[in-house]
Design a protein that fits this description.
By secondary structure, the chain is of the alpha/beta class. The protein has 12 helices and 11 strands. Helices cover about 40% and strands about 20% of the residues.
Length: about 325
């Protein structure tokens, strides 16, 4: 029995699952949750999806079934697209479970669950799920294909990031054949934004700062900024892509003060290992895309992170 068959065999052995993922859900985490949810439903299993942060209103089958609060304890828990500690307020519930499953592609995941399928070479957790199901001959339908496609599109930045491989394109083509809708998916994830968010983006772009001949670029958004414009900080994670547009930028950083003295930091790079930078601040992720959360005043977070980024640039160059 190979690794894929063994893992899916274990997944089919139990029932009454909680399916969860990381805080501030993105397309890959949501797509993975919906895919596993539909797969388990096909097996006749009872399962509940929970994410404690707001879920975007995307055209994905079953997304309305994601709940904000768990209604009970669960003996069996599936953690997707992160290690358990990144599930936030759900962590105590995950720790209570008798059997846990973890599927993820992030570099710093240590695989501490009962059953782990960690593949850091994949572009997305949804790519792992696609390959798992394909290996055991699962027939893809719209309910599987659409969320898988969304997750792959999201974590490759619409097939623009360095993790976009020939395998990614082949998976996207097959999922499209089975019902995934590329234009609707891309529009929902990257393009369809409320007018107030567009206005806020215009303001935010005026705040971009740079150093080292634009090799380092960053954007700082304060809690007061979000309140003034009536914008949810979780709706602004893609603003880092605009910072990344600065010509010549090698490290880009987005600071979001989501609450007083609570700062979420996103890192992107075109070739420098910024995973180590995120780790310095208790975070993690990938070599070229990572994140961290700091429980300190915003001004201190910016000073510390920018200083560390400058040192990394100087060491690289």
């Amino acid at each position: 029995m190979n690794r894929k068959t063994h893992f899916l065999g274990a997944l089919s052995r139990y029932d009454n699952y909680l399916i969860c993922s990381h805080e501030n859900p993105d397309a890959d985490s949501i797509g993975a949750m919906l895919t596993v949810y539909h797969y388990l439903k096909l097996l006749g299993k009872n399962c509940t999806m929970v994410v404690t942060d707001p879920v975007p209103d995307w055209p994905l089958p079953g997304i309305e079934q994601i709940q904000p609060v768990p209604v009970q304890d669960y003996e069996h828990v599936i953690v997707l697209d992160c290690e358990p500690k990144r599930t936030g307020s759900l962590l105590p519930l995950v720790n209570k479970a008798k059997v846990t499953f973890n599927i993820d592609h992030h570099k710093d995941n240590q695989g501490i669950c009962t059953y782990n399928y960690i593949d850091t070479g994949q572009a997305a957790t949804c790519m792992i799920l696609y390959q798992l199901f394909k290996a055991v001959g699962i027939n893809f339908d719209y309910e599987l294909a659409q969320p898988l496609y969304a997750g792959i599109v999201g974590d490759t930045g619409g097939f623009r990031h360095a993790n976009t491989t020939s395998d990614v394109f082949l998976a996207a083509a097959e999922l499209t054949k089975h019902g995934a809708v590329p234009n609707t998916t891309a529009d929902a994830i990257f393009a369809a934004k409320p007018l107030e968010l567009i206005h806020f983006l215009g303001y935010a772009l005026t705040k971009i700062e740079t150093r080292h001949n634009d090799r380092l670029a960053w954007l700082v958004l304060s809690y007061e900024d979000f309140n003034t414009y009536g914008v949810n900080p979780s709706d602004c994670d893609q603003f880092i892509d605009y910072v990344r547009m600065v010509a010549g930028s090698q490290i880009v950083i987005l600071f979001r003060e989501t609450a007083p003295d609570l700062v979420r930091v996103g890192f992107r790079s075109r070739g420098i290992n910024i995973h180590q930078l995120a780790q310095n601040f208790g975070g993690g992720g990938h070599l070229l895309a990572a994140g961290a959360q700091l429980n300190i005043p915003l001004i201190d977070a910016v000073q510390q992170v920018v200083t560390a980024a400058v040192k990394l640039l100087e060491g690289d160059g």
